[in-house]
Amino acid sequence: MYSTSYLLFQSLTAVALGDALGLPIQFEKRENLLENPVDTMKPSAAFNLPQGTWSDDTSLSIASLLSLAMGFNLHDLMTRYSQWYHFGEYTPFGKSFGVGKTTAEAISRFDKGIPPEKCGGIGEMDNGNGALMRMMPLAFFILTDHQNYQFNDEVAQTIHEYTETTHRHPRSLVASGILTNVIIRIIQNPNKYAMLRAVNEALDYYKGKDAFAAQTPYFKQLGDASFLRQPSANIQASPYVVDTLNTSFWCLMNSEQYFVAVKRAVNFGSDADTIGSITSMLASLLYAPVTFPVNWLRDLKGRDQIRVAVSSALISNYF
User: Fold this and answer.
1) Is 58 annotated as belonging to a binding site?
2) Is 319 within a domain?
3) Domain count across the chain
4) Is residue 271 annotated as involved in ligand binding?
5) C-beta of residue 281 within 8 angstroms of C-beta of residue 15
6) pTM of the shown model
7) Are 171 and 141 in contact (CB under 8 A)?
């Protein structure tokens, strides 16, 4: 297991790289990308931003990391999300963009005085991937606090409370639990089958909980190697939490290098920035130590913000 300082900096950089690579082709059709796959940073025409610019995935990850560096405080967490949304904090150019509907509505509720743990959307249509994109800082926070880590009630409650600030549907809570457990387990043991075991470990926990058992069939395929080995044409990429995890895990299981996994992820199109960001983060841990493509790092904006956020976390008592 590599040092926390190395892995945290590497994984936050990976979040930004996958985000920035995918942003310009967000919602592009997959068939178009099959003919002209993307593997270099490009400007974002939709938002009139230069190549290498990252979006809400990275901004919310930075905001979350800086909040957790002060301890687990949901009010502070949501205050930082509100500052990002309204004032462009934690962005390369001082403006937020591309925020998901469920996250925007959660921030609006917080601004009106709703308690942070009640801000998240609870409807069936509130199962987008806006919480998944910010799970990485929490995984490092939990692992630091639990030297003999097990996916248990205490850990699950922490993940759920963190997720509920924007997404409160039980399916989103299970998705966050699965992803966070996978991040932690591949930090501890970076191989693909540890990833599959981590999925099944989380699912076994949720099957025993009345509030979540009905959600587990949506995710059972994630622990099945045969599902993850099927042709890419059978994988549906979208912002839906189930589709996002299916796509990201498929890319990891069908790649042997960081670069290949991330390229596969963004070229699914659809929600390319978030799927690319999550895949990039996981691949950076799975294949550690990773050498990022030089041209990707060269074009990446806001690298100093990433360094400062990681440095702030590492001098705290929580990482």
Assistant:
1) no
2) no
3) 1
4) yes
5) yes
6) 0.97
7) no
